[in-house]
Automatic annotation (TrEMBL):
<dbReference type="InterPro" id="IPR053305">
    <property type="entry name" value="Folate-binding_rcpt-like"/>
</dbReference>
<dbReference type="Pfam" id="PF03024">
    <property type="entry name" value="Folate_rec"/>
</dbReference>
<protein>
    <recommendedName>
        <fullName>Folate receptor-like domain-containing protein</fullName>
    </recommendedName>
</protein>
<feature type="transmembrane region" description="Helical">
    <location>
        <begin position="273"/>
        <end position="293"/>
    </location>
</feature>
<keyword id="KW-1133">Transmembrane helix</keyword>
<feature type="domain" description="Folate receptor-like">
    <location>
        <begin position="85"/>
        <end position="212"/>
    </location>
</feature>
<keyword id="KW-0732">Signal</keyword>
<keyword id="KW-0472">Membrane</keyword>
<keyword id="KW-1015">Disulfide bond</keyword>
<keyword id="KW-0812">Transmembrane</keyword>
<dbReference type="InterPro" id="IPR018143">
    <property type="entry name" value="Folate_rcpt-like"/>
</dbReference>
Amino acid sequence: MRNQIRTNLFSQNQVEIDQSKNLIKFSRIAGIETFPINKVNINQNMLIQIILLSVGYAQLEYVKEVINSLADQECNFKKRIVYGQQKLHRLSGIYFCDSYAKRTCCSQQNLEELKFKWYREQQQAVELTQQCQEIFIKTICSDCDGDIGQQIRVGFCPHYCAQMYQACWNDLFQFDEKTQKLRLCYQNDVFCSELRNIVNSGDQFCTSLGYKVNSYTDVDEWLENKYLNLSTNPLCWDGTPSHRIWGADTKLPETKVSTKSKKKSTKEEQQSYLGLIIFIVIIVILIVVSYRANIFQKK
């Protein structure tokens, strides 16, 4: 994002310099160079453009320096997850949270745990709308985004919370008395309500789920303060994977998920689902037997 802005600036400046050069050539051909004031104006214009271009290049260099320094920064977020990596790396061969695995503090085990946690939550919960499922997966995966791991971005941006709220507007939720947080409505819950009847805004939704809301979005100011070693507030997280913001200029060590480990993981998931199905069948049988026994006693 930052590089694209700089590239556009340099391209614009180069075009203007080329235009100035063409004006000089045209002036000489037309014999206008006999009027020194035109030369002065053109030279001043060129000087201004050269200064702007130099400033642009200088800014690009400090941006690169800051981005490169981020690659060496340690992971220090330990509120909801214990990272398997101390520094950023690229995890390839992962399909759950794959966008965030490209610049992450998470290990393969961390991502497998997040995936299992989400699948288990889905099995307990009533059916969600497609858009609510998608935003929840993105939200769960946020802990494995490199910027969250390094605390570069802390808390969700208000507009991301608004997206979450809009996506889950009509879905059912329940307030958990134990955790004092909002959660998905489970199939065995007696009473649940649509989200719009529980909270009134995206900020309330994020806070009720246990996420912090942060409004700081000034990337330019953050980069400048970081370069000058000045204290600065962390940016907010808006759902954009960190590799799309910083990753184009830094090469991170890559960890490939082996085929064996993926097969093992799939086998473990199948065994887990089989165990859950067997447990449900046993419960159903016990309920039926108990029901028939009660009827027999009444007779």
